Amino acid sequence: MVSLGRIAYKTGTSYGYRDARAIGFDGKTVIGVWVGRPDGAPVPGLSGIIGAAPILFESFDRLGSRTALLRKAPPGVLFASNTQLPAPLRRFRHPNEDVVARDAAPKIAFPADGVDVDLGSASGSTGSLVVKVRDGVPPFTFFANGAPFGRSAFARQNARQPDGAGYVTLSVVDAEGRGDKVTVFLN
């Protein structure tokens, strides 16, 4: 959480640029802001600091001058700059960067390797298999048993209508040629 003069606030951006959030507290009032599309579609470049924080700050400005002061942090709170954090916690990026996790190869987040996927209940009424990827550099190319079935410029998921029940090997390749694969059983 950051303290900006009289406001303590925190911003956040969801995986795949679907939601941007900011929440703030001025000692008396809490305000939360969400920015995104109601259909859950990604908005490339959307982030909490760029999309939601300006609305949060304007909301507090419209409240006028406040007399409540922020309390001191409770005992035991750790204050550290990004460079002082352990390496896994330094993954934040500048809002103007166009990709997330540039150094990491893509990883198929769903479905997991070795699982049985029930297309009747897990994927809704469409019966399609949804493949979701994290990390890597877009665009992504999706494959089923070596045959491409989709390419997405920004989206980190793609859907495929399977040929039927049985084992299928799903793979994804990012813009830098790095990939991941899983094998699942469809029923």
Low-confidence stretches: none
> Can you give the helix content as a percent range?
10-25%
Count of discrete domains: 2
Mean pLDDT: 82
Q: Largest beta sheet: what is the strand line-up?
A: 6-12-11-8-9
| Helix-strand makeup class | mainly beta
Number of helices: 2
Oligomer: single chain
Strand content: 35-45%
Shape: elongated
- Tell me the series of helices and strands, N- to C-terminal: EEEEHEEHEEEEEE
Query: How many strand elements?
Result: 12
Return Rg in Å. 21 Å
Largest sheet: 5 strands, mixed
Task: Outline the secondary-structure elements.
Blueprint: E1 2-4, E2 7-13, E3 19-25, E4 30-36, H1 48-63, E5 107-110, E6 116-117, H2 119-122, E7 129-134, E8 140-144, E9 147-152, E10 157-160, E11 166-173, E12 179-186
Parallel strand pairs: 6-12
Antiparallel strand pairs: 1-2, 2-3, 3-4, 5-7, 7-10, 8-9, 8-11, 11-12
Report on this structure.
With 187 residues, the chain is mainly beta. It folds into two domains: 88 residues, no CATH class; 80 residues, Immunoglobulin-like (Sandwich), CATH 2.60.40.10. The chain has two helices and twelve strands; from the N terminus they run E-E-E-E-H-E-E-H-E-E-E-E-E-E. A five-stranded mixed beta sheet has the order 6-12-11-8-9, with no helix packed on it. It has a four-stranded antiparallel beta sheet with strand order 1-2-3-4, covered by helices on one side. A three-stranded antiparallel beta sheet has the order 5-7-10, with no helix packed on it. The chain is elongated. It starts with a strand and ends with a strand. The mean pLDDT is 82.
